[in-house]
Sequence to fold (354 residues):
Amino acid sequence: MIVHHEGRLEDLLELRARHQAAIANLGQTALSSRDLAALLNCAASLTAETLDVDFSQVLEARPDGTLVLRASMGWTTELIDAASALKVVIGPPEHPYGVLGVGTRSARTFSVDEVNFLEGIAGILAAAIVRRRGDEVREHLLARAMSAQEEERTRIARELHDETGQALSAILVGLRSINDAETLTKVRALAARLREVASKTIRDVGRIARGLRPSTLDDLGLLPALRRYAEDLSVTRVINISVEGEGVDRLPHEMETTLYRIIQEALTNVTRHADAQTVTVTIQRRNDTVRATIQDDGHGFDAPAALDTFGGERTLGLVGIQERASLLGGTVAIDSQPGAGACIVVDLPIERSP
Fold:
């Protein structure tokens, strides 16, 4: 039961001032430090002291719905055993990050001001958790980008050495053979073989170059570049990939690059993890928004668990897709469950011309 705080007006004003000072103190701590564990401990201590309760705790909400103790002050017993208790949700109710709770040994009622105070503390913790999530995502993406860059350099060096280098060596040997050929017929036969080797080398170099930055994306636009990429991927991964589009002949350069990388990441995830037979990519322009949909018939996954970043398992490919979309003010919706394939919908806004 919640009742209004009784007492003189001066006492009420003093109590509210204490609450505001505590919230300001925690807010300052949140701004000056990125140590989330220390902030949670500070919140538990500050809440217990300000509300004059016997127990205060911060619980983390895990993807499976369980709560895990992250910080506490006071009793070592569970808050549920308290004679009186007050709890508020940290973060959005539909997908909470955790719970902030206080309790007392003896029966007590909590005022509206005390409820508001606890919600204020929970709001600061929620903002800190969101910021920390963003920091962790960026740190992981940076580490993955650096790793991917090194892997790409290694792959290119290997292909240049094993394929292009050997082909050039074969051409050099062939040219020497032509020089030593005794008849015009032998010269023509050797020249024909060298043309085949040279043509294959040109194709290999083009494939390597397209992997770094597809010229088709700059010259012809998003759809032709994606179709070319899908053709190459379909051959190497033995999967049927179709790319369809509507009203997206040319888009702003940054948007084309972002969508290309997002869809490239999504298709990479599918070919590596989904065991899918078919993938359909659809891109549509709707007024001031471009929507890209990537749908596969693979074995699916637990989407909420894959996207959780507060203690659950991270799927960096999906997180990377969300991060790329958010940089352009876009959104990502992921619909999947084990055994039912997956559907990723990306919406990016197109800025209107002034």
Summary: The chain is about 55% helix and 20% strand. The CA atoms of residues 26 and 42 lie 7 Å apart.
